[in-house]
Amino acid sequence: QQQAYNPVKTSAAVAVAALQRQKAQVSGVSAQVAARRSAGLTGTEGPTSLLGQGSGIGASITIGNNGKQYREPAIKIGRRWRVIKEIDFSVLSKLNMKPPTAANLSQHGTLYYYDKTYDRVSTKQPKPLQAIDRLKYNTTATDDPVLQKLSEKHDDVSVFATDAVMAVLMTAPRSVYSWDIVVTKANGKIWLDKRQDSLVDYNTVNENSADPPYDSSDNQDSIHSASNLALEASYINSNFAQQVTDRKKHVSFPLPNPFHSMDWDLDAPGKTPSKPEPSLASVAYRYRSWDLGDSIKIIARTEVDAVAPPTGGPGATGPKFLTIKALNEYDAKAMMGNSSAIDWMKRLDSQRGAVLANEFKVNASKLARWTVQSILSGADSMKIGWVARKNVRDLGKHTILGCTNATPSQFAQQITLSLNNAWGIMKTILDVLMKIPDDRYVLMKDPNKPMMRLYSVTEANAESEDGNEEPANESADGEEAED
Question: pTM for the full model?
């Protein structure tokens, strides 16, 4: 994905370098976590590294012998991988379960207050998006030292994950691109991990449109390829979330950022409280648990991006937690053949409802994931920015055109996301994983069909060997890629 950008052919060499630098931050593992892994303190020896590299965000296509286009899987399927279970999305869409109540276990980091002046930004009074170089860790579950400690303390908990991975699974039927989750089961405990540089790390763009962006050997230098658009969208989200916070006002939690400091103790919160660090992004990690019944309990790391003053009158206490995201427009006229594209500059202020309704259609998967993550973290509100390129051919300059506020539960209703269904999907997947023996597995969304497969992947089989993978993506039946 880094090589997919060509700074000579685009007019944003500086932006490309910034995109790549921040990309490393998006999915980086802290030095402290790396040290814990080398010391054998993370439980497993880098389970995701055994699987090698995948096809980026799972949007790559290839041309079959019949001349038709087929999407490639998120990761190459080894010849010795064995399918354990197939789950059709039509089945998942019918599931229901009452959402369980979350319990807070620990909170880490420092949050800054949201800057309300951004609520007044409009197409007539826009603000330029700034490049803000602050560090935000996005470590997978197995490498999370807090989750490791919590797994030792809570023998009754069987599943450990992050809100990002849970959101991918809970909104699976809305996904178009292929994705994969690494499942490690040991001593009856299940760890759900992402691979570095997988779709979980990025924000896709127009994934649910009639003609979604794709990656191929012919468009790898294009600024409108799926991977390049996802990288740009993730860069925008990272910067927007930091720009709209006021660095003069903050709230610090009893425990410091666990990936930036090793000086913390879960049993003594407040002994080494979090302190503002100029190099760190505004983020708080909230570790929460849910009881799904049938002896299935989950602990996950969730994130919130900012705080706001309490509302509701004099009796209101405590700040409100916010998650901050950004939708981005890359080319209103081209939009990869999307006939329903709307020019934000012309219609965002006067017809925001229509613009948002279009985003519900073309970015259904991304918006659902954001909403689920906000609900899992216990956020009181979602701030969604509207960001567009200042020039459609220039990746280096973006403009903030507005900001929308939404309550997560109400936003879920707007996008027709059933939380009962989302939790039903999660429970069904975990029921399957609880019954399989201890081993390593990959749960992957089929690139061309609305279904997911669970593969058995032993360490020997997972190691990449030349000529030892499937030639494409289990599309041997000749089924054409779906829109």
Answer: 0.86
